[in-house]
């Protein structure tokens, strides 16, 4: 893609590995200065930072399940750069908790942790980012195909991602008068640590066969669409949720 993001500051949450790391690399490769966010993976995040093209990238930490910490991540980025142009809400957790075989304490804890990281975190970072993003500003939320198909073994995940898609659309309307666009990306399975347990053996073959391409997405294929969503010409696509699932699930 020849369009560039020079002079723009992007905060990418959960950029210590997986899809977030690929997004950070894509955005930096197109000229953005990137705040690489992590929670526990400081060493991984430092390694990602070291691979980014260009100058002036920044490391920022915080548990997005904690509202004040979510606020702190945005504010630390703005304090460092003096501006914010792009927020990518990518951080998330996937924990299995089948309703019929999960004990009560684990059920409650998983709902709280999953909604905290996957839905409330993005809501709170967006709240603070909206106070700093200007005309042309962008919020990109990493949702999931699971929001549409359901997640029988991880219902909190499916519910959180459905909520995140709806948050995307609500904020698209609410923030448009400020010139801020809000888009979502809904990947199917992607080759990362989060998906790895589901991609082994016969079960993995079945997952790949969900797509007529007979494979799952690479992190770079997801990062490509995040880059597109961040480009100035994508502003009017605000409110769109872009499927990146290899035609494994089609919705009209
Ligand atoms: N992989 C897939 O198949 C797939 C499919 C559809 C959608 N997605 C979505 O894509 C996004 C990235 O997934 P991934 O596969 O790249 O995941 P991953 O490899 O497990 O990485 C998750 C990232 O999120 C961060 N994180 C998790 N909980 C956090 C919290 N409470 N506060 C702050 N940061 C937190 C982790 O930080 P630390 O490691 O530093 O703790 C890590 O950087 C997620 O939103 C996921 O739901 C993934």
What is the name of the CATH superfamily? NAD(P)-binding Rossmann-like Domain
Can you tell me the number of structural domains? 1
Mean pLDDT: 97
What CATH calls the topology is: Rossmann fold
What is the level 1 CATH name?
A: Alpha Beta
> What is the count of β-strands?
7
Q: Low-confidence parts, pLDDT < 50 over ≥5 residues?
A: none
Bound molecules: NADP nicotinamide-adenine-dinucleotide phosphate
Side by side, the strands of the main sheet go 3-2-1-4-5-6-7
Architecture in CATH?
3-Layer(aba) Sandwich
Task: Compute the number of helices.
Answer: 8
Major sheet details: 7 strands, parallel
Secondary-structure class: alpha/beta
Compute the gyration radius: what is it? Answer: 17 Å
What gross morphology would you assign? Answer: globular
Order of helices and strands: EHEHEHEHEHHEHHE
Distance between the termini: 28 Å
Structural description of this entry:
This protein is an alpha/beta fold and 252 residues long. It has a single domain (9-154, 175-188, 216-244), classed as Rossmann fold (3-Layer(aba) Sandwich). 43% of the residues lie in helices and 13% in strands. The chain has eight helices and seven strands; from the N terminus they run βαβαβαβαβααβααβ. It has helices at residues 18-29, 42-51, 67-81, 104-129, 146-149, 155-175, 201-209, 219-230, and strands at 9-12, 33-38, 58-61, 86-89, 138-142, 181-187, 241-244. The chain has a seven-stranded parallel sheet with strand order 3-2-1-4-5-6-7, with helices on both faces. The longest helix has 26 residues, at 104-129. It is globular. The model has no long low-confidence stretch (mean pLDDT 97). The structure holds NADP nicotinamide-adenine-dinucleotide phosphate. The site of NADP nicotinamide-adenine-dinucleotide phosphate has 28 residues, from helix 1.
């Amino acid at each position: 893609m020849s369009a560039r993001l020079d002079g723009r500051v992007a905060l990418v949450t959960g950029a210590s590995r997986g899809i977030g790391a690929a997004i950070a690399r894509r955005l930096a490769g197109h000229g953005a200065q990137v705040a690489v966010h992590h929670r526990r993976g400081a060493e991984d995040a430092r390694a990602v930072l070291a691979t980014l093209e260009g100058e002036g990238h920044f490391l920022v930490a915080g548990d997005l399940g904690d509202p004040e910490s979510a606020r702190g991540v945005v504010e630390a980025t703005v304090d460092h750069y003096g501006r914010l142009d792009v927020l990518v809400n990518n951080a998330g957790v996937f924990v299995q908790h089948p309703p019929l075989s999960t004990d009560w304490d684990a059920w409650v804890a998983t709902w709280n942790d999953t909604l905290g990281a996957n839905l409330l975190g993005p809501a709170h970072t967006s709240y603070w980012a909206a106070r700093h993003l200007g005309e042309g500003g962008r919020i990109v939320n990493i949702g999931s195909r699971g929001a549409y198909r359901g997640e029988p073994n991880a219902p909190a995940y499916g519910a959180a991602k459905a909520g995140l898609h709806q948050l995307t659309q609500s904020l698209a309307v609410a923030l448009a008068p400020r010139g801020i666009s809000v888009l979502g990306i809904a990947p199917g399975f992607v080759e990362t640590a989060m998906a790895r347990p589901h991609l082994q053996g016969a079960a993995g073959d079945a997952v790949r066969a969900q797509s007529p391409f007979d494979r799952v997405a690479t992190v770079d294929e997801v990062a490509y669409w995040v880059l597109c969503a961040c480009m100035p010409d994508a502003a009017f696509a605000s409110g769109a949720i872009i499927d990146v699932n290899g035609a494994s699930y089609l919705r009209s």
